[in-house]
Design goal:
The protein has about 950 residues and is mainly alpha-helical. It contains 49 helices and seven strands. Helix 7 links the parallel strand 3 and strand 4 (about 170-180).
Length: about 950
């Protein structure tokens, strides 16, 4: 396919017609980079000329045959023989001339370097021209020579002889030549370009207009106009190919998908055809150009020509020439390969040993030029170079940067190579501790071997602070609590007592972390709670790590002195963008969760998961998703909770979670139980867990989930056993953070199911009188359950308060339960104006295919024969009346309600009059408290205005 070459083809046709009309020869030279369509132009013109009766003789130069004397001329004469000419004498003279060339090296000489001497040359040149003249007697003759840059010197001498004698011979000589690093055959070109009848045609790259037209013909309806999308598509394709027809044809020939509605074709998928075209173009350049292209592919970054030349051992002029021809052929854009697909094609064609050598040269050269350590380290890893002194420090620096940037995968690669390099023992220990952290973030199971080596080395050295800080979190993750406790207690800094230094702050943080993750050790830190709890609100005086763990400690061991919610929020605000130890952000997230602020946990987890570096750390991503899953569960969003928990187990398989596996498993068990999928809950319960998990708060969380499943399936004894075991754990730890596990509340559920309402009420009152850390959700749940044990006259007040608490904390399913029960109480009491809006509100709070069984069993509007009458019932509030009643219940005056709802005061008064009648009350102070739970029934702009 000849693309955008109509003008050049028309000019060649005019030149041939002029030869025929004036009986005078002509020379045309077509030049351009590799892949610009020179060969296609010559072939198209030759076919057209032959179709008009013109004799066409063709030949092509070849790099492999450039040392073959008279190779190109022989091809032309072969065509003459086919045309009936006798070339016997010419063939004999060519053989004699070839034998007269003194050396094999001279056969490869340029035309201006080969001496055309000897008695055979004059008759040879005359006979060649005479043979051509024989063909002219029958009509115009066209000599086509492609790839002139590879033509042998002897043939070029003969061609020059012919071009000098075209004044009265209708012979058209059509030549094509590709741009090269250095001008080839300068003497030949100097004489050729001096010919008065020479036409020089340079083929330019494709343009947006030509590509757009091609796409329009292929994809659009005939006669359709050009769309902006089509032009943008053409621009993208040109950017990828540099306007090179060879690359472009391969690209548009690839399978491509169309938009669903059959419109504009999407960007073609690049595959083998494009890669082959890239290599076809590359191998038609000189070896130096291929070297430069491979170096650019290995570097994959802009570099100076000086650096590129030093890397390859080439002179700057050679590098400049190589970049010029690569750019002209569409492979290079400025100083790097034009597109990642081109880079991939070049790399895939580069032999392994050459690629390794290039990486080694790149590492050394970039290091000499002062490149960033991360850039040099990538080449060190690829090359395997380890034997020089500067290698280990560069790899360590790059690893530290990658780890702080959220690229543990790169960190592992750098550290593995760094450990192989010849390093001193101290550096090796540092690299090992970093390797543990990096490998854990990618796959905790892969860190076990390095962690064991780190622990053995630390024991030998008496557990210095750096080793303890590096090892403790991962020992705790594996449930090796005793080893972690030994690490924070055995070091000389630990024995020296509390100091204010940053290292001691980190050590104190690890000591506190051991106690909070395995509360068996809480006794040791309770004595100093007054010291470390102050760190939760200290901004600059302590290390961030100590502050983060102290915030979690303040949530699990709540006091009146520290507001753990505010401290967690402040810490996340200050440090969520920090580059470095993202693991410390888990502590304030858990603090918010245990303090009852699941809504803030969901918001913060979304921010953290949106960070780019999260993509490269499956462990960190899985932990945050697991925390968000539990927060969503506490907000009543079961689909989101299940989705996040499943994703967490996809990020890290269950065996990699260590003792923390109870987190995502517990959430999934609860989701399946809440939605009545008990068989699925049993499958999650069948997942193996470590026995050490039940020494951690995560184990308590898992027991609550398992006990709830037993309760929902009627296994009351098993449920009671799990809840009592959880209570024994919490009492043994002396933990009363109800946001962690409200075990008394769960045990009360069993008692209610067994009919022991008195015992249940006692447990619930104990839960409500916990001195510290009673969050709104737990309090709302306790009041809701307590209402089921209370007398009817007291039950409504308890439910009303539970509704307010669920509304405040954002627990939609808890709110739906309480609203549904409130409706039932109102119906049973026989009071006027049964507010069916409560049931509809409950349905809205927990509707959809994942609605829990208790929701599906609640009174529903759908299918109720009374539903059709609701619009006309005297005891059902209209939408307008409900909006006014909600604001009145909140204490708004008639004027304020008028402004908020954009209605007149008179209209407000009318709505209130009807509302009082329907609800059987006399004044606004008698309005039922359940209206306070209807705030989000209001339009958003109204909520904002009255807030």
């Amino acid at each position: 396919m000849l693309i955008e070459r109509g003008e050049q083809l028309a000019q060649l046709r005019r030149n041939l017609k002029s030869c025929d009309e004036h009986r005078m020869g002509h020379v045309a030279l077509v030049t351009g980079p590799v892949g610009m369509g020179k060969t296609q132009l010559l072939e198209t013109f030759g076919k057209w000329a032959a179709s008009t009766g013109v004799r066409v003789l063709t030949a092509a130069g070849s790099r492999a045959e450039q040392g073959l004397p008279f190779g190109v001329l022989g091809q032309l004469l072969h065509g003459a023989r086919l045309a009936g000419c006798d070339t016997t004498r010419v063939d004999k003279l060519m053989a004699e001339a070839a034998g007269a060339i003194p050396t094999a090296e001279a056969r490869w000489a340029a035309a201006d370097e080969l001496p055309a001497e000897g008695p055979m040359w004059p008759p040879l040149l005359r006979d060649v021209f005479a043979t051509l003249l024989e063909l002219v007697d029958r009509g115009p003759l066209v000599l086509v020579v492609d790839d002139l840059q590879h033509a042998d010197a002897t043939s070029l001498h003969c061609l020059l002889y012919v071009t000098r004698r075209l004044h009265h011979a209708p012979i058209m000589v059509l030549l094509s030549e590709t741009s090269t690093l250095r001008p080839a055959n300068s003497l030949f070109h100097a004489e050729l370009r001096s010919r008065p009848g020479l036409s020089h045609l340079t083929l330019p790259p494709l343009t947006v207009d030509s590509v757009t037209q091609l796409l329009q013909e292929r994809d659009a309806e005939p006669g359709g106009g050009r769309s902006s999308e089509l032009v943008q598509e053409a621009q993208r394709l040109l950017h990828m190919t540099g306007g090179n027809p060879l690359l472009f044809q391969a690209l548009v020939g690839e399978p491509h998908r169309r938009e669903e509605e059959g419109g504009l074709a999407a960007l073609p998928r690049v595959g083998d055809a494009f890669g082959r075209a890239v290599l076809h173009s590359l191998y038609r350049h000189e070896p130096e150009a291929r070297k430069v292209a491979r170096a650019l592919a290995v570097l994959d970054r802009p570099v100076s020509q000086e650096l590129l030349g030093q890397l390859l051992g080439l002179l700057p002029a050679s590098v400049t020439s190589a970049l010029r021809v690569l750019h002209s052929s569409g492979l290079v854009d400025t100083d790097r390969l034009r597109h990642p697909r081109i880079l991939h094609a070049v790399l895939s064609d580069t032999p392994t040993e050459i690629r390794q050598w290039l990486h080694e040269r790149a590492a050394k050269t970039l290091h000499e030029y002062g490149a960033e350590s991360s850039v040099v380290a990538g080449h060190l890893v690829a090359s395997g170079l380890t034997g020089e002194e500067w290698v280990a420090p560069v790899l360590q620096d790059a690893a530290e940067h990658a780890l702080s940037s959220g690229r543990p995968d790169l960190t592992v690669a750098y550290l593995r190579r760094g450990c192989e390099a010849g390093t001193d023992e101290e550096r090796r220990k540092t690299l090992t501790s970093m390797l543990v952290s990096a490998r854990w973030q990618v796959n905790p199971l892969a860190a076990n071997g390095d962690l064991d080596r780190l622990v053995r080395s630390a024991k030998t050295d008496g557990y210095p602070v750096s080793a303890a800080v590096a090892a403790v979190p991962y020992l705790l993750w594996q449930g090796r609590a005793e080893e972690a406790a030994e690490a924070v207690a055995a070091g000389p800094e630990a024995k020296a007592g509390e100091t204010a230094g940053p290292k001691d702050g980190r050590l104190q943080a690890m000591r506190l972390l051991v106690s909070l993750s395995h509360p068996d050790f809480l006794v040791s830190v309770r004595k100093s709670q007054g010291l470390w709890s102050k760190a939760a609100t200290a901004v600059h005086s302590v290390s961030p790590l100590l502050q983060a763990v102290s915030v979690l400690g303040s949530a699990l061991l709540p006091t009146d002195e520290v507001d753990s919610t505010a401290a967690a929020e402040q810490f996340l605000q200050r440090h969520h963008l920090d580059r470095g130890n993202r693991g410390m952000l888990v502590a304030p997230l858990l603090a918010l969760l245990y303090a009852g602020r699941a809504d803030r946990v969901v918001a913060w987890c979304g921010i953290l998961l949106g960070r780019p570096e999260t993509r490269h750390s499956p462990a960190w991503r899985g932990v945050v998703r697991s925390i968000r899953a539990e927060a969503a569960l506490r907000l009543g969003d079961l689909p989101e909770a299940e989705q996040d928990a499943r994703a967490a187990l996809e990020d890290l398989p269950a065996p990699a979670w260590g003792v923390a596996v109870g987190g995502p498993l517990g959430t999934l068990i609860s989701c399946a139980t809440e939605t009545g999928r008990h068989a699925e809950a049993e499958r999650w319960l069948a997942e193996p867990v470590q026995t050490g998990m039940f020494r951690t708060p995560v184990g308590a969380h898992y027991l609550i989930a398992r006990g709830s499943h037993h309760l929902s399936t009627g296994r009351h004894q098993a449920a009671s056993s799990d809840f009592q075991r959880c209570g024994a754990m919490m009492r043994g730890w002396n933990l009363e953070a109800t946001g962690l596990v409200p075990w008394r509340l769960e045990l009360a559920r069993v008692q209610i199911a067994l009919g022991n309402r008195t015992h249940a009420a006692q447990l619930l009152r104990e839960q409500l009188h916990v001195p510290h850390g009673l969050d709104e959700r737990t309090r709302g749940r306790a009041l809701h359950l307590l209402a089921s044990t209370a007398a009817p006259d007291h039950r409504r007040k308890l439910l009303s308060k539970a509704v307010e608490l669920f509304q405040s904390c954002g627990d939609r399913r808890g709110l739906a339960r309480a609203l549904a029960d409130t409706d039932q109480v109102l119906r049973q009491s026989g009071g006027g104006g049964r507010p069916r809006h409560l049931v509809f509100r409950a349905d809205d709070a927990a509707k959809g295919p994942d609605a829990a069984p208790w929701v599906r069993q609640a009174p529903e509007r759908q299918g109720d024969p009374r539903a059709a009458e609701d619009g006309d019932r005297d005891d059902v509030l209209s939408e307008a009346e409900l909006r006014v009643a909600v604001l009145a219940a909140r204490g708004q005056t008639n004027r304020q309600i008028s402004d908020a709802l954009f209605i007149t005061v008179s209209t407000v008064e009318q709505h209130l009059t009807r509302t009082y009648r329907k609800l059987n009350v006399r004044q606004r102070t008698d309005l039922p408290s359940w209206l306070l739970a209807m705030d989000d029934h209001q339009p958003r702009e109204v909520q904002d205005k009255v807030s």
